[in-house]
Amino acid sequence: MFHFDAILLGDRKTGEQVNLERAMLAHARFGGHFVQAHVDTTATIIRREHDGDSLRLWFQLPEPTADRPSLMPYLIPKGYVAIDGASLTLTEVNDSHRIFGVMLIQHTQEKIALARKADGARVNIEVDMVGKYVRKSVIAALGGGSEDGIRRLVEKAVENVVSVV
């Protein structure tokens, strides 16, 4: 279930910059990942570091709860994440601390509002929908992810190997 308080639109102040982009055309060349503008959660900027002309940013996701499970399984190095609507490549992921990082090249810093946010700022996060589909499909293939479903899958795999031998 979606809760309006999961996004930060109400936290914006007069004059604060936000990213607005037109939707991608179906026949246009595609680079990056699909961004649907469906916010999954928020994160907090915990560190900013200049690296030559680039800017590295690190974010921390909130503690998972029953209503808001962890999104860390959807974040992988060199994978995609949308931060405040901007599609970015993940440079690092630390699952145990719920931290992930991105790097903004000079051009990107000039084009998106994220580069001007300070440590402690909260941002909207949308994880890659392909990861969501893969996870859902794998859980379904494993019989709902239950221990019995996994056991049946392993037993079937062993039977297939033994029948070949």
UniProtKB/TrEMBL annotation:
Residues 34-138 form the Lumazine-binding domain. The keyword Transferase applies. This is Riboflavin synthase. InterPro entries: ATP_synth_asu-like_sf, Lumazine-bd, Lumazine-bd_dom, Riboflavin_synthase-like_b-brl. GO terms for biological process: riboflavin biosynthetic process. It is an enzyme of class 2 (transferase). SUPFAM superfamilies: Riboflavin synthase domain-like (SSF63380). It comes from the Eukaryota. PROSITE patterns: LUMAZINE_BIND. It holds the Pfam family Lum_binding. Keywords: Repeat, Riboflavin biosynthesis, Transferase.
